[in-house]
Specification:
CATH superfamily of the largest domain: GntR ligand-binding domain-like
Shape: globular
CATH topology of the largest domain: Four Helix Bundle (Hemerythrin (Met), subunit A)
CATH architecture of the largest domain: Up-down Bundle
Order of helices and strands: HHHEEHHHHHHHEEEE
Helix content: 55-70%
Number of helices: 10
CATH class of the largest domain: Mainly Alpha
Structural class: alpha+beta
Length: about 270
């Protein structure tokens, strides 16, 4: 019998993660080591290590008496992932905006152009959107960067399972254009508020498009903790577009923003 090829742990991990994120391996699929070793033509030892890494990132879970299987995708988890990003990322962005180089800003502008050109092609749009934010992400402290990258992969997986194309991609481009302008101006406080709006908008769009009755509790808690008010209806859900406002008096220079999910209008 021919010897299996010695693919590295990193290579195997990337192949398996890509298949899980893109929905080739759907939630609940049993990740049999013998089947995967045969399918990928790899040795068991690096495969086992790659599966352990996938478990650490939350893409696979250990099932009782069944080995490992692809982890489920739930609206509750996705909302909580956005809530974590909302609590962590905007303050970090405010702190690192002044560190952005001309090369970083050029990479953001190029990615934004690619987003606009690939608006009708889901994967191209999402990849360009990731590159846009990655230009800033590389300046995060390493542990925070790795955590946010892991969260981002899970959110992308949710998007690819539930949607065939991004909803209103032109709205993403408009908000990211404002974020780029704030970055060019090295205005970290403005970039922070725009990113807060962007994350809440993206969370509401992703979740409520698929489940209009979902009540975003974790997102509401995170927003309140940051001095952000989201206009929820009496049942706890969010009208669309929902009104957003900052209650701590820090948003004096934030321009009006509006999407199909969310809007902000400065007090007159």
């Amino acid at each position: 019998m021919a010897e299996k090829r010695g693919h590295s742990v990193d290579e195997i991990y990337r192949v398996l993660a890509d298949r899980i994120i893109n929905g080739v391996y759907l939630p609940g699929r049993k990740m049999s080591q013998s089947d995967l070793a045969e399918e990928l033509d790899v040795s068991r030892t690096p495969l086992r290590e790659a599966l352990n890494r996938l478990q650490q990132t939350g893409l696979v879970v250990a099932a009782t008496n069944r080995g490992m299987e692809v982890s489920p995708v739930t609206f509750e988890e996705t909302e909580q992932l956005y809530a974590i990003r909302l609590l962590i990322e905007p303050p970090v962005v405010a702190a690192v905006t002044g560190q952005l180089t001309e090369a970083d800003l050029a990479a953001m502008a190029e990615a934004l152009d690619s987003m606009q050109e690939g608006a009708e092609r889901t994967k191209e749009f999402q990849d360009a959107h990731h590159r846009f934010h990655e230009a800033v992400l590389v300046h995060y402290p390493q542990a925070i960067r790795e955590m946010i990258e892991s969260i981002y992969l899970k959110i992308i997986r949710h998007q690819r399972i539930y949607f065939s194309r991004p909803r209103a991609p032109e709205e993403f481009c408009e908000i990211d254009r404002l974020l780029l302008d704030a970055s060019v101006a090295r205005d970290g406080e403005l970039a922070k508020h725009i990113l807060e709006f962007h994350l809440i908008d993206a969370a509401l769009g992703l979740i409520l498009d698929a489940n209009p009755d979902f009540q975003p509790a974790a997102l509401a808690i995170a927003a309140r903790g940051l001095g952000i008010k989201i206009e929820f209806n009496v049942q706890g859900g969010s009208p669309r577009p929902a009104r957003l406002s900052w209650t701590n008096g820090t948003a004096a220079n934030v321009p009006p923003m509006r999407t199909g999910n969310l809007f902000y209008e400065p007090d007159s």
